[in-house]
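Hey, can you fold this?
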Amino acid sequence: MPKMNRNILIRFIEPNIELFHKKRLESLLHLRLNKVLERKNPYLFKAKNINTAEMLVRSLLNAYLSSQEEGIFGGFLEQLAIFVCHKVYSGSKSISEGIDLEFVKNKTKYIVSIKSGPNWGNSQQIRRMCDNFKRAKKILGSNTSSIHVVAVNGCCYGIDDKPDKGEHLKLCGQRFWEFISGDRNLYTEIIEPLGFKAKEKNLQFSTEYDKVINKFTLAFAKEYCLSSGAINWNKLVEFNSSSKKNTKLRY
């Protein structure tokens, strides 16, 4: 079995982590205040006693950006896992619905759904993943009767000490990276290259973030603050949730 060459790994990570920073910055720069206000829960921020425009804008923006960043970085980790597995086991991106990776190891065909961490979905989403595994197994089984197929939910970080879920395996953190690479230390060795130009990129992001905070706070105060300076919560909730925004709605 070939080993994952560290120089090849670094040459993959560095440009792709730069792409993560680029997408993260673009997500911030293309953002509009109304988009953030539409997608976040105004009741939550009222319950948290947030009463200044700047605090509300910062809280809304941070919550929105956090979910965006997790999605962008999750995509990067999936690409990294597929790259590693391709180099070691000739793994490839699957064409089956809901399956991210497939490869053969020790005469067993593995189909893998890759997630960032172990607590990635609710019961309905997990059932959907299991249904995808069943369909993929059925298709592979119809192609050949001799192949043994094992479904795996691979999580890039975290711990699950009960990996056998019956219909599939759940391999998290070290177990997952060792599973796709044969190297039990890979999960720690990928951390250092992820910091490539991190200080420079985050300084650039922070500069633009501050500008957006100022711009959004000014716009929010003009639109959603009373002459007294207090937040007009009724107007904010109406913008976020009023049925009048969609007159074509049919029940």
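Oh, and this one too while you're at it.
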Amino acid sequence: MDSTPERSRTATWAGVGLAALVLLFLGSTAWDVLVAGRPDPAQARLDAFRFERASVPAPPLELQGVDGKPVSLAALRGQVVFVNFWATWCPPCREEMPTMVELGKRLAERHPGKFTMVAVSVDDGWEPVREYLHAPPFFGPERTGLKVALDQDQQVTQAWYCAARGGDCPPLKFPESYIVDREGRLVSYVVGPRDWSNPAALAFLESLVGS
């Protein structure tokens, strides 16, 4: 007996079953993202980068800059501001600085007047800061695009560290970076060094600049 029609029906039902499984998977994924509130891949990348959430008024920041001019957070109101606390004696700070500088340049070029990056050193004085910034790969603080400031007594640093944590003030560690939105609110912070060339960093900051 010719079993071709039977094989055809079997193949057809197998195809239907496979299609049903694919639709079930796609439907489940859509449910996860749209209904169940589970993160999509872009959100997962942000979570993996570990932007800690915050929502408090940014503490004051009034410090002397490397060029002798004041660095003031209040003067930057209306911009998204990235504030990094670091030191030349901190190896992880030095390691992350090149990619951080490139991220800052990219955002400033793409969004002129809407983004500023501030680097607050907690060194004991200006000499090691200037020495570090005049060496490769920067060849001068003016080429970094950063507003470089000095917080020698670390009082400003301590205020930011505690504010981000809702008043909890564990011992200071470096580096740490803080994100201030256009309304002057501290909305996020990053504990420890990062590779700032990670696309998640650019995506998150651009979402704030464009919001």
